[in-house]
Amino acid sequence: MVLAQTQTVETPDNQKKRWTLKRVLLTILFVILALLLAAVIAVAVLFRKEFGTVATLQQQDDFYFTMDYKADYGLDEFLETGASTDSELAAFIVKKLMKGLPVEISLPNLGCSAFAAQTPEGDWIFGRNFDNAQAAYALVHTEPQDGYESISMVNLSYIGFGDGSALLDKVLALAAPYIPLDGVNEAGLSIGVLQLYNEPTAQETGKTPITTTSAIRMVLDKAATVDEAIALMQQYDMHSSANAPYHFQLADANGDSATVEYIDGEMSVVRAADGEKLATTNFVLSEGEEHGDGKGQDRWQILTDTLRAKNGTLTEEEAMDLLEAVKQEKTKDDGTFSGTLWSCVYNNTDRTLQLSCNRDYEEIRTYTVDWE
Hints:
- 30% of the residues lie in helices and 28% in strands.
- The longest helix has 35 residues, at 12-46.
- By secondary structure, the protein is α+β, with helices and mostly antiparallel strands.
- A hairpin with a 2-residue loop joins strand 12 (257-263) and strand 13.
């Protein structure tokens, strides 16, 4: 039997149908690609400032980073409702800045030193040591549309930041504006927070609540002088971050300085005696309170004695030397290190910062408020 091979001849109608199907499939593919491209472009446009901010996060050494914050962190929106706990502050950050990515804020114990002085040239300066467990930290530049430009120091570990190598670390850094610990703004106002050991502050007077670190953000963005900062803080109910007590030292370009404390739920403002310059560590300074409570009396004595001996006049180099004299460094029994992570000399007159990282007083980094 002979098998005959037959050849299928495609009719014009079948050929037309096949090409029509191809065109439909290609059209669908192009539409899908266009939608994906549009979505990518939309996300890029929507989050362009956030992406731009993350791109500026630069590691300068093992623990020290810099970041130029380009996104809107929504301080005015935050101040409408405020926050009475770190969790409430974190919830606002998640919604406003993190686009749903969870973040937690946790402030461990910290011991610090601060003082105000004047240079021989007449500039007003503010010196500050930040003492804490070893961790990553950053100098953050912010330039809000409705507020003062500033530079501030942030302990990144408070938001779960690791060593900076993971993408998650870079995204978490978007929360940095709400956890500053010291800084100076373009008006020449400086502020630093220091821990106390009395009762945590939890004011309940019906005013909008605010936390320790968000209060620093508010002061840097909204106040030009010590008096303005105090008046602004009085408009809010203060709630201690991490359920621990703190006080703040302020200094401005007019030579004014003050330490703001909260005693039994009431704000107390401490100023230096006539002819002296103010120093603050980790014990209560308010009149009538027990100054023995807390820590840092030895550091406070060194600061005060030096300022008195110098009649409150120090060069920026001498101010950094004084911060070195009261630095802390200790390795605990479990092998972890705790000590001075950074030393800052803020020049409120020139709006500059002299920065020493990790107790390296041979390498001093210089920044201005309008740094690029």
